[in-house]
Amino acid sequence: AGTRTFSIIKPDATKRNLTGAVTKMLEDAGLRVVASKRIHMTREQAEGFYAVHKERPFFGELVDFMISGPVVVQVLEGENAMQRNRDIMGATNPADAAPGTIRKELAESIEANTVHGSDSDENAAIEIAYFFNEDEIVG
Ligand code: CMP
Asked: How far apart are CA 24 and CA 17, in angstroms?
């Protein structure tokens, strides 16, 4: 029930075997994992996903990092899922993130920041469709 958002558990987290720890924090925050798969993104896939950041100075490093190891892409469902997920993720830069958030507790840096989460319901729908077919999502 509720709405859906999109999440990525990033390579810094899969490398440190934190897939379960991140997922537990999402679940404890009231989100349900209704789709999940571990993938190693191609460069083209990562560039397409982050196309909105193409002109940013950190784009190249961001893509390199996102293909440096496996990630776990997930669809999360819950009451106000997009905002709920952003609240539990914390600020982009872990140095600015509030105590108890995923990025404060687990992230290494602004780049290796453990999770991605959609920043609007509109982008959530786009990002979900980028990685999942509707029949892979089981609510
Ligand atoms: P994410 O939510 O995945 O969206 C874009 C990502 O770019 C962001 O998380 C950060 O991990 C990454 N990034 C790297 N450097 C910066 C920066 N200087 N400012 C913002 N985002 C950055």
From this structure: 13
What is the per-residue pLDDT across 22-78, written as a single tens digit (0 to 9) for each? Answer: 999 999 999 999 999 999 999 999 999 999 999 999 999 999 999 999 999 999 999
β-sheet bridge partners, residue 71? 39
Q: Is 110 in the pocket of ligand 1 (CB under 6 A)?
A: yes
Q: How far is CA 123 from CA 15, 71, 83, 96, 119, in A?
A: 27, 19, 12, 24, 7
Backbone angles phi, psi at 16, to 5 degrees: -90, 10
Pocket probe for ligand 1: among 59, 92, 108, 126, the residue whose CB has the most ligand atoms within 8 Å is 92
Nearest atom in ligand 1 to 58's CA: 15
pTM for the model: 0.97
Q: Active site includes 40?
A: no
For residue 13, give Cα distances in angstroms to 2, 79, 139.
27, 26, 25
